[in-house]
Specification:
470 residues; seven-stranded mixed beta sheet; six-stranded parallel beta sheet; 39% helix; 16% strand; globular
Length: 470
């Protein structure tokens, strides 16, 4: 039996490194005797014609697509092509969007999908494939974890199961997605030129309740950890077999368990890995102190993303960040004073409760902090979050959300105090205020390593320069 897993294209983003989620799914399937093929659409420069020929050549029994909110249209097209080329193939969807939206909505939005999965699917997808291989369909009392399926015109679904023993999942199927195949263009940090690079996770889960974040719904609230030996073994394997020079830790809370994180850094040093690594998905400022920071740098950390979100204590409190502006200033200053670790600051602009003064405070804070880069992410209503539920209750949003419009630079909603038009002006002001300072502009230019970096910068300059100036 053959399974094809596809990461659809997106109109907004590229991917410069392998998709680790598909890699884990491929390993689970391969262990059970299934032949698997992974397609990273954009990274491999796929086209519709290439997909059709690949489907005919590989002839999969199951075609699966990973769906983000912004790539629903592209996922639909891939599933449709799968059915056109192989009418008997079973189509499956999974990923963040299917996990977060109401389950009936998932299959209504993507009628081309025969089945869906919510949450982690290493166990569930393997069991579904076993049923398919036996020419069976899930019964009403089917207990496959995370499965979403239709029974006599109605949608049934099972809650996901989060695996406690992460070591038992093995390693992602690196043979199906060798890091050298990926250019690194438009990866997490376009300032990096350390390739081949590979994503890696040491933990899964997030116990925090930030109002705007859906990670706990996707990976569970319990922090689950791989053993240190397992993580180090993967790093050594990727360095020795795939020449990986840089690792992207995709954990939501890499340093939450202080002792475990300390052990990981010390193990990197003891094994003399001599690699560079960063934390593009963020690391909580509250988990950092002098000892941890110096150890991180010694172990090879060169950059971290920190979720600052706002320059207003009132907004930070509403976001449930458990963080104050004072602590943000202190921690960023500590990082700058003790290390040469690059600090990438992430802010949310257009949070529903924000006033114009709150936004201006965020811009001012960004310019005052010793950070090298700043991303002013436009607020987007993400299902499965507290703020999404609040906005639905208050009738601020309805059922007609344009999921394809969800993007870090796209203002979708006004706040309760600021219009969309004014938010767009403030968004442009934020980027101009931060990046058009001589020190930052010069550093940005000196960080460029190839034509892709230049194109990335020019696109952003054009996007914000074309908006009305403040």
């Amino acid at each position: 039996m053959r399974v094809m897993l596809v990461l659809p294209p997106s109109s907004h983003t590229g991917l410069g490194v392998p998709d680790i989620g598909l890699g884990y799914l491929a390993t689970a399937l391969s262990r059970n005797g299934y032949e698997v093929k992974i397609i990273h659409w954009e990274a491999e420069r796929f086209t519709e014609a290439l997909l059709r020929s690949s489907l005919r050549e590989f002839c999969p029994d199951v075609v699966g697509a990973k769906v983000f909110s912004m790539n629903i249209k592209q996922a639909k097209k891939i599933l449709k092509i799968g059915k056109e080329e192989l009418p008997r193939a079973i189509t499956v969807i999974g990923g963040p969007h299917p996990t977060l939206v109401p389950k009936h909505q998932m299959l209504e939005e993507l009628p081309e999908a025969d089945f869906g999965f919510c949450g982690e699917a290493e166990i569930g997808l393997t069991r579904l494939c076993s049923l398919i291989q036996e020419n069976k369909t899930p019964a009403r009392d089917c207990d496959i974890p995370g499965l979403v399926w239709r029974i006599n015109g109605t949608v049934s679904w099972n809650p996901p199961v989060f695996v406690d023993d992460l070591d038992s999942l093995g390693l992602p199927a690196w043979d199906l997605m060798p890091p050298k195949r990926f250019s690194g263009e438009e990866a997490f940090s376009f300032f990096s030129n350390l390739f081949p690079a590979a994503p890696i996770v040491a933990t899964r889960g997030c116990p925090f309740r930030c109002s705007f974040c859906a990670s706990p719904t996707i990976t569970g609230r319990k922090l689950r950890k791989r053993s240190i030996d397992h993580v180090i073994s993967e790093m050594k394997f990727l360095k020795e077999q795939h020449d990986v020079r840089c690792f992207y830790f995709l954990d939501d809370n890499l340093a939450l368990d202080r002792q475990n994180f300390t052990n990981l850094c010390e193990a990197m040093l003891a094994e003399r890995l001599n690699v560079r690594w960063n934390c593009p998905y963020g690391i909580r400022l509250g988990s950092l102190d002098e000892k941890i920071l110096t150890l991180m740098e010694r172990a090879g950390c060169y950059s971290i993303n920190v979720g600052i979100e706002s320059g207003s204590d009132r907004i930070l409190k509403h976001m449930r960040k458990n963080l104050s502006v004072r602590e943000i200033r202190e921690k960023c200053s500590l990082i700058k004073r003790l290390t040469k670790i690059n600090i990438e600051g992430n802010f949310i602009l257009g949070y529903p409760e924000e006033t114009e003064q709150d936004i201006l405070s965020s811009i001012q804070l960004a310019c005052e902090l010793p950070i090298s880069t700043a991303t002013f992410t436009a607020f987007n209503p993400i299902p499965g979050t507290a703020i999404f539920d609040q906005l639905r209750e208050e009738k601020w949003i309805g059922d007609d959300i344009n999921w394809e419009g969800i993007y870090v630079d796209k203002i979708m909603l006004p706040t309760k105090h600021v219009s969309i038009e004014r938010l767009e002006e403030l968004h442009a002001l934020a980027y101009r205020s931060f990046y058009l300072r001589p020190r930052i502009a010069l550093r940005l230019l000196s960080s460029m390593r190839n034509a892709t970096h230049l194109k990335f910068i020019l696109r952003r300059v054009h996007r914000f320069a074309s908006r009305s100036k403040n």
